[in-house]
Amino acid sequence: MKIFDLLEQYDYEQLVFCQDRSTGLKAIIAIHDTTLGPALGGTRFWNYESEEEAIIDVLRLARGMTYKSAAAGLDLGGGKAVIIGDPDKLKGEALFRVFGRYVEGMAGRYITAEDMNVKTQDLAYVNAETDHVVGLEGKSGDPSPVTAFGVFRGIQAAANEVYGSDDLTDKVVAVQGLGAVGYYVCKHLHEAGAKLIVTDIKKDCIERVVNEMGATAVAPDEIYGVECDIFAPCAMGAVINDFTIEQLKCKIVAGSANNQLAEDKHGDLLQEKGILYVPDFVINAGGVINVYEELKGYDKERAMSRAAGIYDSVKRIFEIAKRDNISTHVAADRMAEERIAKMAKVGKIYLHK
After folding, report:
1. In whole angstroms, how far apart are CA 251 and each of 196, 228, 267, 326?
2. Domain range spanning residue 163?
3. Same domain for 111 and 191?
4. How many CA atoms, within 13 angstroms, populate the side-chain half-sphere of residue 183?
5. How many domains is the chain built from?
6. 204-240 tens-digit pLDDT
7. Strand 77-84 and strand 25-33: pairing?
8. Which of 37, 131, 190, 308 is least enclosed by beta carbons within 10 angstroms?
9. pTM (predicted TM-score)
10. Residue pLDDT, tens place only, 244-260
11. What's the pLDDT score for residue 254?
12. Is the pLDDT of residue 352 over 80?
């Protein structure tokens, strides 16, 4: 693996490796772009099969955060961190405090937050060593409800585009992943009258949604081929790939998972199949919107109102795609890149501080 070639491909600014033998910490922090502001992105704790897999994941996630914040109209750059290892065995106060010191050492260029297998209590340990952390209890807290609300509004925008109405009554939605965000997405869909087909790798997560919402459960590898109106990926990335794309029997792909397309070509293939794709970094921006509000002085109603605006952002992407005759994932990139380019010009004006 040629790391500098990877960084040069999408012009990443920084990749930092953090190691502490006493706690078992092996972390990687990636900063993609800070044109709009400090790089913000959560910390993911995952038992990666290899260091190379972790590097690729953190780089993809960091770039996604740049585009997510830009498309959402936030003055933030894109960054991400991953901690390598089994969270059930390694998580603890000392590990997160060591990690917090590494974050502090970046002097505000990177702001961390919650992500997969990292909770608000873990962030409290990080916060003991650095103020460059958001999503804390008593402030913005768990971003999952706001993220899920934004995803729901994005699904409504897609339904309006395809079916001519925001109404989801009796629409069949296949939801993959029933964790913190996926659960709340299901709750919004259920309350809107949708019929749910669900799956997860954890049995208790499935049982919760089945019992509370009358969902139909299927095995994880069966979710791609079910007959549905909307497929909502809310788990890991790269689920739209050569293997799964031929199985899809839906009109819309819209969910909270990051990096849903294994490759850019899969966005074009969805379009060719007549499936409307809602770009993930636009529809799942509720989480970063939530923590951004914490930096400004948190107000829950303001965060939810801003997340509701994801509906308009998604509709704007559809307009750009039709105007320029391009697929929606390219349109979303274009919308974000245009804002970064405009704001970079603002940054050229000298301001004495």
Report:
1. 15, 8, 14, 18
2. 144-284+312-337
3. no
4. 14
5. 2
6. 999 999 999 999 999 999 999 999 999 999 998 899 9
7. antiparallel
8. 131
9. 0.84
10. 999 999 999 999 998 89
11. 98
12. no
Query: Which is catalytic among the residues 26, 68, 80, 91?
Result: 80
Q: Which is nearest to 198 in space by CA: 163, 213, 188?
A: 213
| CATH of residue 49 | 3.40.50.10860
pLDDT digits (tens, 9 = 90+) for 76-103: 999 999 999 999 999 999 999 999 999 9
Tokens of 75: 């003055």
Q: Provide the sign of the torsion angle of the four alpha carbons 47, 294, 232, 263, taken in this order.
A: negative
The residue written with tokens 């509004």 in the block is 153
If asked whether residues 48 and 191 sit together in one domain, one would say no
Claim to verify: residue 148 and residue 112 sit in the same structural domain = no
d(CA 96, CA 127): 9
- DSSP codes, 315-346: HHHHHHHHHHT--HHHHHHHHHHHHHHHHHHH
Residues 176 and 53 in one domain: no
Residues 40 and 164 in one domain: no
CATH code of the domain containing 319:
3.40.50.720
Catalytic site includes residue 348: no
